[in-house]
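User: quick one, sequence for these tokens?
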């Protein structure tokens, strides 16, 4: 890198740091939703109250409840009916996604692509977290970790939209290749930007560390549960990348082939047989597509690949 390139890279890094300082406030609803306990007997009523206080989101919930995939011929005409049909847990996850998308609206193709990936990762995290052997991971925390793990990429490409294509076309096929491409193009990484943003927002330390370390294999956190969360995010990020590149058919390969792929690339051990995990991932992929549609994110290719059969 010559002196001119070094100067440009330094200017980019400085601009990104300035963008961090001017970050919008994290929607307070994100924090409130993340603190809800799905085991609380009052959970449904708490969620209903939050939805009723957010008319914009209520429309999205009704859209999801009345989609063809709901399996009902009778339209949900009230928020409570929509909540019963969709489920309180799914409604909370949709609302978390809705509030996250408001930070970086999907106006451009690259934003839609990033949210598609983030929703898919979040959906996988939620379902696989309870299946991790030798860990007690909170499924709600895992969902939020997946939803926000790439927030640094939104910051990076908001400043340098042309860098998205440059980095995506750089030919990398490993996490280290992605990080090297980002450093060469932007003189920083999306993982560090995400860590700084989430720390600035005051989010739980586990979420910030997961975002920072999900492309790293060294210097694992001392906290065992945080280490497991990081490893789960690393596994799930790879799964989501494979589905994005190959479509839902990648999850339809034989259990033996799928198990061999997963054993070669994933770090954690999971409960249940491989056929069950394939079924769970197929369901999670379809749900992510429905969420994207309900949120109005333009990702027709992803939705078509994951359409209900």
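Assistant:
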């Amino acid at each position: 890198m010559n002196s001119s390139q070094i100067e440009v890279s330094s200017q980019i890094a400085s601009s990104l740091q300035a963008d961090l300082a001017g970050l919008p406030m994290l929607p307070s609803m994100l924090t409130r939703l993340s603190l809800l306990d799905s085991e609380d007997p009052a959970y449904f009523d708490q969620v209903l109250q939050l939805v009723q206080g957010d008319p914009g989101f209520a429309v999205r919930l009704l859209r999801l409840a009345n989609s063809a995939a709901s399996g009902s011929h009778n339209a949900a005409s009230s928020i409570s009916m929509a909540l019963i049909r969709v489920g309180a847990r799914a409604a909370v996850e949709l609302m978390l996604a809705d509030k996250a998308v408001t930070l970086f609206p999907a106006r451009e193709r690259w934003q839609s692509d990033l949210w598609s990936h983030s929703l898919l990762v979040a959906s996988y995290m939620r379902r696989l977290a309870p299946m991790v052997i030798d860990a007690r991971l909170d499924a709600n925390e895992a969902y939020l970790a997946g939803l926000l793990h790439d927030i640094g990429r939104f910051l990076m490409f908001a400043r340098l939209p042309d860098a998205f294509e440059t980095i995506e076309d750089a030919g990398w096929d490993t996490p280290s290749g992605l990080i090297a491409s980002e450093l060469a193009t932007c003189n920083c990484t999306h993982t560090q930007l995400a860590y700084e943003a989430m720390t600035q927002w005051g989010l739980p330390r586990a979420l910030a560390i997961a975002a920072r370390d999900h492309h790293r294999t060294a210097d694992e956190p001392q906290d065992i549960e945080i280490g497991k969360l990081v490893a789960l995010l690393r596994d799930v990020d790879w799964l989501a990348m494979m589905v994005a590149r190959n479509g839902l058919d990648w999850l339809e390969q034989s259990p033996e082939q799928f198990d061999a792929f997963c054993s070669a690339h994933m770090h954690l051990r999971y409960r249940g047989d491989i056929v069950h995990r394939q079924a769970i991932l197929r369901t999670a992929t379809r749900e992510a597509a429905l969420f994207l549609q309900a949120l109005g994110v333009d990702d027709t290719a992803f939705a078509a690949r994951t359409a209900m059969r």
